[in-house]
Amino acid sequence: MTYAANTDVPSDRSRAEIERTLTRYGADGFMYGWEQTRAVIQFKAKERFIRFIVELPDRGEFLLTPSRKQRRSPAQVDSAYDQAVRQRWRALALVIKAKLEAVESGITEFEAEFLAHIVLPDGTTVGDWVRPQVESAYQLGTMPQMLPMPKGDNDGV
Quick check: 113 and 102 in contact, CB under 8 A? Predict the structure, then answer.
C-alpha cells in the first residue's frame, strides 16, 4: 500500500509542514510553485539550492473506478484526484524530513542525501545531468567522461 494513501491532511498543510521542517533544520530559503501537471519546492540549505518536483496525477486517471472500471461522477473524480495529490505531498514531507534527520543524526552527509536534487548553475539538477550518463554507462559498459575542469590562470594547480 502506498504511504498516506488515505490521508486527510490537506496539501497546503503538508507544504507548510515541509517549510517548518526545513526551517527547523537550518534552511535559509524556501519557495513553492505549481502548474497543471506538477508542483515544485525549492530551498536553500548548506549553501546549496535543492529542488524537488512532484509530478501530479492527471485527472483523467480517475474517471473510472479502479476495481470495476465504472465511470465516476465529477465529484468522485475530484475526490479521488485530491486524495492522490494529498498522498504525494505527505510522501514528500516524509522524504524531506527523513533525509534531514539522517543528516542531523550523522547517518549520512547533506550533499550525499540530496545529491540528485542539487540545482546546478544552469538550472538543471545533478540527477537531470547524471541519469542519462548512468544509463549510457550501463548500455555501453564504459564510464562517462568527467566534468571538464574550468580553464584559468591556475591550470594544473
Answer: yes
Nearest to 74 by CA among 84, 57, 87, 59: 59
Q: Using CB atoms within 10 Å of the CB of residue 35, give its burial: 0 to 12 exposed, 13 to 18 middle, 19+ buried.
A: exposed
Q: Which residues of the chain have pLDDT under 70?
A: 146-157
Q: Please indicate, yes or no, if residue 100 is contained in any of the structural domains.
A: yes
SS3 label, residue 93: helix
Q: Which domain holds residue 46?
A: 11-140
- Domain-embedded: residue 1: no
Cα separations (Å) of 130 from 93, 108, 120, 123, 125? 25, 21, 12, 14, 9
Give a yes or no: residue 59 inside a domain.
Answer: yes
Cell of 53: 518536483
Flag whether 43 is in a domain: yes
Query: What's the structural domain count of the chain?
Result: 1
Question: Residue 146's pLDDT is what?
Answer: 67
pTM for this predicted structure: 0.85
Query: Which strand ranges, in their side-by-side order, compose the sheet holding 48-55?
Result: 29-35, 38-45, 48-55
